[in-house]
Amino acid sequence: MIISNLENTIKQLGLTQNKLAVLSEVRPNTINDLVKGNSKRIEFETIDKILTTINQIASSKGIAKFFYIRDIIEYENETIPKPDFNSLINRETFELLKKSLGASPISTSIPGLTSINILNLLILLEEKLKSGIIYSPINTLYAEEQALWNIRSQLTTFSLADLNSASTHLELVLNEKGKEFIKLLKKYGTGLSIN
Predict the structure, then answer these.
(1) What is the 3-state secondary structure (H, E, C) of 133-158?
(2) Which residue from 31, 48, 83, 96 has the highest number of Cβ atoms inside 10 Å of its Cβ?
(3) Is 99 helix (H, G, I), strand (E, B) or coil?
(4) Beta-carbon neighbour count of residue 6 at 10 Å?
(5) Is the dihedral of CA 167, 177, 158, 57 positive or negative?
(6) Quick one: the chain helix, strand, coil %, rounded to 5?
(7) What is the pTM for the complete model shown?
(8) What residues form DSSP beta bridges with 161?
C-alpha cells in the first residue's frame, strides 16, 4: 500500500499546496493528487523537483532536517510488523544511529573477526557491554572487551553507553537507550532503511 506523507511535510514547512506547486514547477493537480493519495503514477523527475524544493525551503527557514522520498510517499506492507519505537528512540533517531554507526567497519583483534561493523559488534557483544567493560592500568582487556572499549567515544557521543569513573578504574556500560537501540537492531536488522 502506498501512503502519502506530503500533506504533513507541507504543514511542517508552513506551505500551501499551491505555493509548493509554483516553487517546484509541478502542476497543482499533481501536488493535490499526491496529497490525497489519488496519483496513479509519478515520474522520478516530479519527485526530484518536489524534494529539491522542499529541502531548499527547509534550509532557507533554518529547519535542521533533510527530507527524503518517504516524506512524500511511502510503501507500507501490512504483513510486516512496524517497528515499535518509543520515547527512548524514535524512527529518525534509529535511522540516524544506524547510518552513523554503520558507516564503516572497524578493526579488531578478535580471533576470526579482524573487521566488523559497529552495529554488528554491538549485537554480537551486547551481554559484555550490559555487564560493563572495566578499564584500569592493572586490568588486561580481552580482545572482545578491547573492541568495545575502542568504540567508547561513539557509544558515549550518541548516549548509548555511560562511561563511569572510579578512583581506580573506568567502566563503560550500556544504558537504557543503548539496550533499546540494540533490541531494535536485532528485531529489524542493521540495514540503512526500514519500511
Answers:
(1) EEECCCCCCCHHHHHHHHCHHHHHHC
(2) 31
(3) helix
(4) 22
(5) negative
(6) 50, 15, 35
(7) 0.56
(8) 174
The cell for 11 is: 504543514
For 48, list phi and psi in degrees, rounded to 5: -60, -45
pLDDT tens digits for 6-31? 999 999 899 999 999 999 999 999 99
Return the closest-CA partner of residue 135 out of 119, 126, 151, 146: 146
User: Rg for the chain (alpha carbons), in Å?
Assistant: 22
Closest among 96, 104, 66 to 157, alpha carbons compared: 96
Set of cell numbers at residue 152: 567508547
Do the beta carbons of residue 110 and residue 102 sit within 8 Å?
Answer: no
DSSP state of 107: E
- Grid cell 554503520 — which residue? 102
Q: CB-based burial of residue 190 (10 Å sphere; 0-12 exposed, 13-18 middle, 19+ buried)?
A: middle
